[in-house]
Amino acid sequence: MPSLSIFCGVLLILIGILGYVNGVMSDRASYTALIPAIFGALLLLFGLIAQAKENLRKHLMHAAVVVALLGFIATAVRLIPRLGELTFSGAEIAQISMAVVCLLFVLLAVKSFVGARRKV
Predict the structure, then answer these.
(1) Are 6 and 68 in contact (CB under 8 A)?
(2) CA 64 to chain centre
(3) How far is CA 110 from CA 58, 84, 115, in A?
(4) Could you state, in order of their start, the residue ranges of all structural domains in the chain?
(5) Mean residue pLDDT across the chain
(6) How far is it, in rounded angstroms, from Cα 41 to Cα 102?
(7) What is the pLDDT of residues 5-25, one digit of tens each?
(8) Could you tell me if 16 and 37 are in contact, meaning their C-beta atoms sit under 8 angstroms apart?
(9) Cα 58 to Cα 46: distance, rounded to the nearest angstrom
């Protein structure tokens, strides 16, 4: 599970950086493009610490799921009302990508938690 957190964290950081670079290249740069990178940094941090500290792994992975769930909800709330009028701009693609990565992480984490619970 920590490796999945690290992987998704790196993906979100890349999404944020690419979104910001796209904004710079199109003269529409905004620091809000780095929001996925902030969520990604948290997932990356939780994953790295969870790998190093076995006794904190369960708590850190639950925290990572909360961060990913908040990331999904934050982007979904912005995207759902505009579904019919999406232009697939760089910002919208970054939001969709963030929502997908966060949702996949949450779903895989819940599956892992259920599997771990069944083993006990």
Answers:
(1) no
(2) 9
(3) 12, 31, 8
(4) 2-119
(5) 92
(6) 13
(7) 999 999 999 999 999 999 899
(8) yes
(9) 10
Place of tokens 């769930």: 69
- What the block records as the tokens of 99 is 């929502």
List, in sequence order, the alpha helices (H) in the chain.
2-25, 35-52, 57-79, 90-119
On the CB side of 100, CA atoms within 13 Å amount to: 8
Cα distance between residue 53 and residue 103, in whole Å: 26
Q: Is 86 helix (H, G, I), strand (E, B) or coil?
A: coil
Angle at 32 between CA 26 and CA 35, to 5 degrees: 120
Instruction: Enumerate residues 6+ apart whose C-beta is below 8 A from 69.
Output: 102, 106
Higher pLDDT, 113 or 104: 104
pLDDT for 19: 92
**97, 10, 53, 72 alpha-carbon torsion, rounded to 10°:** -10
Annotate 42-70 with DSSP letters as a single string: HHHHHHHHHHH-GGGHHHHHHHHHHHHHH
